[in-house]
Amino acid sequence: MAQATVPVLDRGFIFGDGVYEVVPLYHGKYFRLEQHLARLQRSLDGIRLINPHSVAEWRGVLEELVARNPAAPQQTVYMQITRGVAPRDLAFPNVPPTVFAMLNQIQAPTRAAQQRGISAITVEDLRWQHCDIKAITLLPNVLARQQALDAGVQEAILVRNGEALEGAASNLFMVRGDALITPPQGRNLLPGITRDVVLTLASEAGMRAREGALTIAGLRAADELWLTSSNKEIQAVTRLNGGPVGSGVPGPWWEILSARYDLFKATLVGI
Ligand code: PDD
Question: Which mutation among 134, 137, 230 tests ligand 1's pocket best, with the greatest number of atoms within 8 A of CB?
Fold first, then answer.
């Protein structure tokens, strides 16, 4: 890591002109890699940057990364592509993109930590109008997360025009009765890979899973709130804006879906 360098004129550094992906691995096996590479392609298309690698080439690079690093039960790969190194000018340059990828070890949360759930606050969503693109330009997310930490809680839920959309780095789900509702895909949020899995698993578990707008008042009346992402999987939010969510502990549907998610991972990666 210490030997890897990027020139200071890289457009990722100067403009935040790039996109990224985070893919989980379990025991050295990539989880939903095809879906992550498809979303990477959509992000690249969204910023009009030509993908420097075919899917087969990406798979080769990522497998080499696993082979060259120590194995671990749970890891993520972070991959970033920027529009390359060029004199500082907004116009697209004619240079090769910069590609960077690294493996990170993940400390799986203990059962006790999972059972505590997390606390969150709602904050105004100050991001741009293309949150469906996984852009490296994360300043509003950085500020939102820090606002949450400064308030003594772990996560911020972003609210735009009265609608709760997602966490600073996760998708949002609300449970009421046997209904599971998550804000609709569109420009306002990232189409999460974990989100898709959870929607499918919830339907299989007998929930009425659907997309729908979530308001702050709606969140207050929730039986359960969850945040989902590649590195945190399904997190129960047990306190929101200082009050308990539902009964104040992770709910029964969270227990069921977490167990199903673990099972799905295990069958997919053969562990
Ligand atoms: N973030 N929404 C936002 C804004 C995110 O940044 C992420 C993931 C998600 C969840 O997407 P997925 O289930 O595909 O991980 C939703 C990654 C993990 C990150 O920035 O580290």
Answer: 230
Ligand 1 geometric centre to CA of 94 (Å)? 30
Closest CA to 166 of 251, 256, 226, 253: 226
| DSSP codes, 213-233 | --BHHHHHT-SEEEEEETTTE
Whole-prediction pTM: 0.97
Distance between CA atoms of residues 55 and 38, nearest Å: 9
- Residue 171 near ligand 1, beta carbon < 6 Å: yes
pLDDT in tens, 34-82: 999 999 999 999 999 999 999 999 999 999 999 999 989 999 999 999 9
Index of the ligand 1 atom closest to the CA of residue 232: 18
d(CA 99, CA 181): 36
